[in-house]
Amino acid sequence: MSNPAHEPFDVAVVGAGVVGCAVARHLTLAGLRCALLEARADVGSGTSKANTAILHTGFDATPGSVEARLVARGYQLLSAWAPLAGVSVEETDAVLVAWDDEQASTLPRLAEKSRSNGHHDVEILDASSVRDAEPHLGPGLAGGMLVRGEHIIDPWSTPIGFAREAVTAGCALLTRFEVAEVAIDSDTTTLRSTDGRGVRARYVVNAAGLHGDTLHRMMGFAGFTIRPRRGELIVFDKFARGLLSRTILPVPTSHTKGVLVAPTVFGNVMLGPTADDIDDRTATGTTVDGLASLLERGRRILPRLLDEEVTATYAGLRTATEHSDYQLSADAGSRYVCLGGIRSTGLTASMALGEECAAMLAGIGLQMPMTLGAPTAVAPAARMSPLGDVSRRPWQDGDRIVCHCERATAEEIVAAVTGPVPAHDLDGVRRRTRAMNGRCQGFGCTAGVCATAATATGTEPAAWLHAPEAGSR
Predict the structure, then answer these.
(1) How would DSSP label each residue in 400-452?
(2) What's the whole-model pTM score?
């Protein structure tokens, strides 16, 4: 709940995905009184939890676009902040693979595009060099391009880390706050949720992701419509990790970056995503056709991958619009900033979007108490425990293991349910600890996780077992 003494807030940020959390962090650390409103039960539990977890260099962005500028800046900021906050980054690089002569002929243009975006560390490779770099690739290689600096990151801890810093600095976090009504007065805007709660703020920031166009219209504006683009993915067992050293990228098209095969910081291998435009903004389930399509493409890219066990499948919805770029706008009259159409690159661009939003708010009249410099200027109040396999984790120091597949400890589970932005259900515990995400998918550890969480919070284990997941609305 918000603190009435804080109202009216300086800024209400609607949407606690990775972008909204980054914005709330930036504004709160700059000295503003902020409220972060989220329709779901937890931060980062929508689109942000179901992405490809790539720390993008922006090499393939459209030169001169807002996205290209913010991805490049966000890459710098996030690369510096993550190790301070305990967010795992694994430096893998990527290789873009051409599978025929037509695709190979586009590589020089893609290399020049990368240089136009300020990323010069690319190298065109012949087919033999690509094979030497990734010997398990399928037959028929025609060439490739090495993209140094294209790394992988923990996508779950990033928004949680942003939210922890924001809340610790005084931001009010209100969950299950689905905006149903907007009333704009002369000096404040009241946002009212479906359950009747209200929040007053001088300025409003729209970071509502898949529902960004809905809030944009509630604020009195048009200009873009979100049609969700569903991306289905398959996660393979950790035994598959030795099949590749880098992220294997396809030659991108105008519609999608295509299906990739990538290691994860958790030690798995991921295949996907698909790219299907749909109308249902809640359709986050996988499909028979989608998974079959991925397996067919995976057999072409990395044939031996299909011999490995599948740990999990999932789907995410990207905020695709009719425009090819982010949809950012600000209006002084309604004291409103819109951060719309933030696509899959939003994870990388998130901290730059925090900076951009602050500048946009200042441009429409909001005075900043202080200027927030580089992320290293404000050290995290409490560093999180890294979840990546390349990081040292608590089990290595003798902490009691509860989930043996992922080596998640009791201490990590306790921290997850009692921290500044605590988990309230098993989905939240998963994303904070990796518990129940391994090969057995919780079969062997769910009871122990529930018992540990219950003891730490003074509740009953059954309350955790039957709690509605953060994705429910």
Answers:
(1) PEEETTTTEEHHHHHHHHHSSS---SHHHHHHHH-TT-STTTTTTTHHHHHHH
(2) 0.95
